[in-house]
Design goal:
Length: 415
């Protein structure tokens, strides 16, 4: 297998023309992901990988034709195959070819159409797609012989499995639907705190009210902390709280559902604060606008114990170009925050830091950026709802969205 990737800089190859891992660190851009597909590092058998599956710094992974309802979650031990555990823990096999309902709070294991055959210097990591996280559908990738979720070791060869746990709503899924995404990485691409401050001075990463946040006001510790927006009068919608006894939601239908059937609006108390009820799912939004320059990618960290007794942001990948506008007319895009308090009620106040954004270097700028280039759904967002909902509250920032039902194309059969 060749590793001479044409989009990479020439100085990253050794005398034989092969990629030199010691001189490279970064996240694969879209053109690099296509090279990985052509090299066979990522394959999907009889189903071709569609152009729209490749994002600026990630590739969408798709569900296969069946799922197993499990008695409990698990991780395989070293040297153990995932299927060895499934034989012990599976309660039922579910056919996904024509779609099926996944019940709330039940773990399911679903093989993915894509498989990996990675070189020894390339590793991968996975995260839920933004729309998946906004519906409180918990996902994580499991691989053979690996005791970590979502982190796939360098040189891995084999199948990928997705654990799916709907938390707030029962959801209908179908073969070919994409619930999560994958990045390929070489070396350690993380950007340190000093470099983050330097980058922000040159190219602002966070904005408040269309103004770059002063460097001295940044909260930096292994990444940039984001705060929550709870500003405005008592009747302003600052978030949504999931209803626990809603109807099933079909994840293949876009701009289809009435938000009121699934969510309750959240308004702030005096002095800009809300109290989160324990084990209830909330959608909030960041006070800051985030800008990810073309030469960087970002990832929201799932949980930070210093931020309080809550989990924030299930969906983690921010592609190059998020909130970016080369003309300078956009001042970042705000980040949706998926929040669940643990054990006890927890108060959150306006501009309280509750999550952290880590930045990583790209191996090269992608040939297309997040936004109009790839038909992104959340560029310039002012709301937190996923693209499955057709309407928003009158007067809410962002305005109404189309109410027409749109069936999402799922996969192309190349046989």
């Amino acid at each position: 297998m060749s590793s001479d990737l044409t989009w990479e800089h020439q100085q990253t190859t050794d005398a034989s023309g092969e990629l030199d891992p010691a001189s490279v660190r970064g996240v694969f851009p879209s053109q690099g992901l296509w090279d990985a597909v052509e090299e066979g590092w990522i394959s999907s058998g009889d189903y071709r990988i569609r152009p729209e599956s490749v994002q600026p710094a990630s590739i969408d992974l798709r569900l296969a034709d069946h799922a197993w309802a499990l008695r409990c979650s698990f991780l395989p031990s070293v040297g153990t195959a995932v299927m060895d555990r499934v034989k012990d823990l599976a309660l039922d096999r579910v056919d996904l070819r024509d779609g099926a309902t996944l019940e709330r709070d039940r773990p399911y294991l679903i093989p993915l159409l894509e498989e990996l055959n990675l070189p020894q210097y390339v590793r991968a990591k996975a995260n839920p797609k933004s729309s998946t996280g906004r519906l409180d559908v918990f996902t994580r990738v499991i691989t053979d012989g690996n005791h970590r979720f979502d982190e796939i070791p360098a040189g891995y060869r084999g199948q990928l499995y997705l654990e799916v746990v709907p938390r707030s709503f029962a959801v209908r899924v179908q073969q070919g639907l994409s619930l999560n995404q994958l990045r390929l990485v070489v070396g350690d691409p993380r950007v340190g705190d000093r470099e983050l401050a330097r980058i922000h001075e040159e190219f602002p990463l966070l904005y408040i009210d269309q103004h770059a946040l002063p460097v001295g006001d940044l909260s930096i510790s292994d990444g940039l902390f984001l705060s929550v927006d709870l500003s405005g009068p008592h009747n302003r919608v600052v978030g949504y709280r999931a209803k626990r006894n809603s109807n099933r939601l079909d994840m293949t239908k876009l701009h289809h559902y009435r938000w009121r059937d699934y969510w309750e609006p959240v308004m702030p108390e005096p002095r800009g604060r809300i109290v989160l009820d324990p084990e209830v799912f909330y959608l909030l939004i960041s006070a800051e606008g985030v800008c990810v320059p073309p030469t960087y990618a970002a990832e929201m960290m799932a949980y930070d114990p210093t931020a309080g007794e809550l989990r924030t942001h299930y969906a983690g990948f921010f592609d190059p170009g998020f909130g970016y506008d080369e003309t300078g007319h956009r001042f970042g895009s705000r980040a949706a925050l998926e929040v669940r308090a643990r054990d006890v009620p927890f108060m959150v106040e306006h501009r309280q830091p509750i999550c952290k954004l880590a930045f990583e270097r790209m191996l090269a700028p992608p040939d297309r950026l997040y936004g109009a280039d790839v038909g992104s759904s959340y560029q310039g967002q002012e709301t937190m709802l996923s693209k499955h909902f057709a309407e928003q509250m009158v007067g809410e920032p962002g305005g109404p969205t189309p109410s027409d039902e749109i069936a999402a194309p799922l996969f192309d059969d190349a046989r």
